[in-house]
Specification:
single chain, TIM Barrel, 8-stranded mixed sheet, 9 helices, 34% helix, 22% strand
Length: 243
């Protein structure tokens, strides 16, 4: 078959989760894609960074795997592409999401949005029912320090979603001493208020459960000594954000 020779029908996959309940509405089939261009200090999946890691999987294999769970995820759940960074493999997602839409399955992407919005990304987003957009930091300088990139593209990405009536959930990891300053949370609240399609804002408390993955790879865990976020931290952030 011609498809078997075309690279857009293959993806690098890190892992699967069959009954996810937090990455989008309802029960979801989630696949975590390999590769990430960011260098988040708090990353709990450090082993996803390499673009040539994971397992090379053919589109039919993923689609058929999803279909085995259709009775569980349809109609109130769906499929979420996460990572790593899912948008590094945009052509594959276009082909997969086309098939999922024909089956009436809800599609979702978990992304940092740190991309120039190309025609391919526009095509993918036209097939996407929901975007989980991880705002790494609302302050550009602090964002560069935390993840190694400016936040300009992800903020433009959020505006594109809003302007094109694409639903989104805004997420931010709450890292004590890094993303919890009151003035930054106020700026984040003000930015979110400019967006028309935000259905939900989620605060994800920082944890260090992925620290061992850094150590297994012989890498220095960059947030060594930073305390994990507790419920009091989360409640404070939610109050400032008005959620």
């Amino acid at each position: 078959m011609e498809e078997e020779k075309n690279e857009k029908y293959y993806a690098r996959i890190h892992s699967f989760e069959s009954f996810g309940t937090v990455d989008g509405p309802g029960i979801r089939f989630i696949f975590f894609m390999q590769g990430c261009q960011l260098k988040c200090k708090y990353c709990h999946n450090r082993d996803t960074w390499r673009t040539n890691g994971g397992k090379r999987v053919y589109i039919d294999d993923i689609f058929n795997k999803i279909m085995k769970y259709k009775n569980y995820i349809y109609p109130n759940g769906g499929v979420t592409a996460s990572g790593g960074e899912a948008l590094l493999q945009v052509e594959f997602l276009i082909e997969l999401f086309k098939r999922l839409k024909k089956e009436g399955i809800h599609t979702c992407i978990d992304t940092s949005g740190m991309f120039t919005i190309t025609e391919k990304i526009k095509e993918l987003l036209s097939l996407t029912d929901l975007v989980l957009l991880d705002i790494k930091h609302i302050d550009d300088k602090k964002c560069r320090e935390l993840v190694g990139h400016s936040n300009n593209k992800e903020l433009e990405f959020a505006k594109y979603l809003s302007d094109n009536n694409i639903k989104m959930w805004i997420r931010q990891v709450l890292v004590p001493g890094y993303t919890d300053a009151e003035e930054d949370l106020i700026k984040l609240r003000e930015f979110i208020s400019t967006l028309k399609t935000v259905e939900k804002v989620e605060i994800l408390p920082y944890h260090d459960m992925g620290k061992y993955k850094w150590e297994e790879l012989g890498k220095t865990y960059e947030l060594e000594g930073v305390r994990t976020a507790n419920q009091k931290d989360v409640d404070r952030a939610k109050k400032i954000l008005g959620i």
